[in-house]
Amino acid sequence: MRSVLLVDDEPQLVRALQINLEAEGYAVTTAADGANALRAAASQPPDVLVLDLGLPDMDGTEVIRRLRTWTELPIIVLSARHGSSDKVEALDAGADDYVTKPFGLDELLARLRAVERRSWPVREAGVVEAGDLQIDLMAATISRAGRRIRLTPREWGVLQLLVENRGRLVSQQQILSEVWGPVYEKETHYLRIYVGQLRRKLEQDPANPRHLITEPGMGYRFEI
Amino acid sequence: MRSVLLVDDEPQLVRALQINLEAEGYAVTTAADGANALRAAASQPPDVLVLDLGLPDMDGTEVIRRLRTWTELPIIVLSARHGSSDKVEALDAGADDYVTKPFGLDELLARLRAVERRSWPVREAGVVEAGDLQIDLMAATISRAGRRIRLTPREWGVLQLLVENRGRLVSQQQILSEVWGPVYEKETHYLRIYVGQLRRKLEQDPANPRHLITEPGMGYRFEI
DNA sequence: CCGAATCTTTACGGGACCCTTACGCCAAAC
DNA sequence: GTTTGGCGTAAGGGTCCCGTAAAGATTCGG
Questions:
Q1: Which residues, listed in sequence order, are joined to residue B169 by a DSSP beta bridge?
Q2: In this predicted structure, what is the pLDDT of residue A219?
Q3: Nucleotide nearest to B197 (CA to C1')
Q4: Is pLDDT of B87 > 80?
Q5: Do A88 and B117 count as a contact with CB atoms less than 8 A apart?
Q6: pLDDT tens digits for range B152-209
Q7: pLDDT at residue B202, rounded to an integer
Q8: What DSSP assignment string belongs to B66-112?
Q9: Which of B15-24, B31-40, B93-102, B199-208 is least confident?
Q10: Rounded to 5 degrees, what are φ and ψ at B44?
Q11: Nearest by Cα to A67 from A5, A114, A1, A3
């Protein structure tokens, strides 16, 4: 998540936030009212929109509603009103999260990261590259250094689940339950066999795996 | 809240709900039985799960229990049974809300919005930064100054509990009860061992800890 | 009906982890 | 000064977990 469109009519707050967000590595553009916000969002769609509800020309929820007619761009709402009805209204209009003023920079950054994580699975579909491996989750194919590798159904089932949760720890129970079925949750020896086979096919040095990592006592993890 | 996984074995109801939910802006995927529901929830985690209790292959509460072993995904239960014992059982298994058939679309949409608002703070629990430490509670990873640290299951169990309650005091009894089990509430020497090991791995100066703080006679606290 | 690929089962060696025991330190109470 | 309780550290043994090999069972296509 790189670019943020910041919409607020208080110049000082905008300037302060812009400096701090840019220091965190975000590219920040700004708008001071709803009309300019809509224009900016359409001409240069940001990765996330931070929107104050109190704008001079139109209600913030109205801005959200218009945006939602054509985009699913994540929207974080800033509101000075503490009443929950405003928040509900904004969320129902299509906002993704809200922050009540006054707020700390830390809180806004946390919300940005949260929205970022949530939008991650959206672009999850496609080819995953890990070292010399190319894994296409949709096509169910995998290549190593350009060469196609053949996997058996079970092998693919295990690898697919791990790659879909790449970076995250996946418990042995979860793998067994998803690939073999809930009845097999206890049969951890199956996993040892298939993880070993996968490593022999995927890893350069199966004895020192770099992608298919064991977390002793907890589960397995696919590292890119 | 974008995506909903809809689990029911009545095709007409599923089709009707899917059309209506998609008209409301949700991305809807469906499953007709428990096994497929678990597989779908694992491979493409939705933002919320709508689950009928009467499934052909397994009890709905069993589906909830299995999901709850690895995810806190919000779950709304549908049930044709009016008895309150079913409701209690499902909620105890880990469901978030409950709708009795027959129900109106408006009611389900209201529950979805309610669960959505409630679940946001939970999702915020992502990456916690503390000094040169980066702790990802979801992925079960921890880095210090960019370098990955390996923790054993017990070490991770203790750290996870403390980080989830960061800033707050956690009693020794609570840690022992959560990580080792209620029987071990008195075995405080376990804690001394593992707190020591954690400090050696996490703290710059294990003798003068800055994150893993002892509150003599009370418990431990994780400070950011 | 046969054969090959895949899945399951069994067995075993090595290593990591957990628990246990023992001891040193510090501070507060007597 | 001595004692006592709580906390931290070190080391060793036993147990569980993981990786590997190999053979039997099952499935599937020809």
A1: B221
A2: 93
A3: D9
A4: no
A5: yes
A6: 999 999 998 898 888 888 889 889 988 998 889 889 999 999 999 999 999 999 999 9
A7: 94
A8: HHHTT----EEEEES---HHHHHHHHHHT-SEEEESS--HHHHHHHH
A9: B93-102
A10: -135, 80
A11: A5
Considering the entire predicted model, what is its pTM? Answer: 0.56
Q: How confident is the model at residue B124, as a pLDDT? A: 43
Give contacts of A114 with chain B, Cβ < 8 Å: 120, 123-124, 126
Rounded distance, CA B187 to CA A189, Å? Answer: 32
Q: Bridge-partner residues for B5, per DSSP?
A: B29, B49
- Residue B125: what pLDDT? 45
Non-local (6+) Cβ contacts of B176 within 8 A are: B184, B185, B186, B187, B188, B190, B191
Confidence of residue B85 (pLDDT cuts 50, 70, 90): low
A59: left (phi over 0), alpha (psi -120 to 50) or beta: beta
Distance (Å) from the alpha carbon of A179 to chain B's nearest alpha carbon? 8
Torsion sign, CA atoms A122, A125, A126, A130: positive
Q: Is the peptide bond before B102 cis (omega within 30 degrees of 0)?
A: yes
Amino acid code (one letter) for B14: V
- Give the closest of A111, A168, A177 to B138, CB-based: A168
Measure A30 CA to nearest chain B CA, in Å. 26
Query: Where is B19: in which H helix or E strand?
Result: helix B11-23
Angle, alpha carbons A18-A19-A22 (nearest 5°): 80
Burial class (CB in 10 A: 0-12, 13-18, 19+), A198: buried
Type of residue numbered A168: R
Other C-beta atoms lying within 10 Å of the C-beta of residue B67: 24
* Rounded-to-integer distance, Cα B9 and Cα B52, Å: 8
Tell me the three state secondary structure of residue B220. Answer: strand
pLDDT tens column, B61-83: 889 988 887 777 888 888 776 55
DSSP per-residue string spanning A116-137: HHHHGGGGGSSEEEETTEEEET
When pLDDT is averaged across residues A63-89 and rounded to a whole number, the result is 73
Q: How many Cα neighbours within 13 Å face the side chain of B6?
A: 23
Residue B136 tokens read as: 């990802």
- Distance in Å from C28's C1' to B214's CA comes to 17
pLDDT at A10: 85
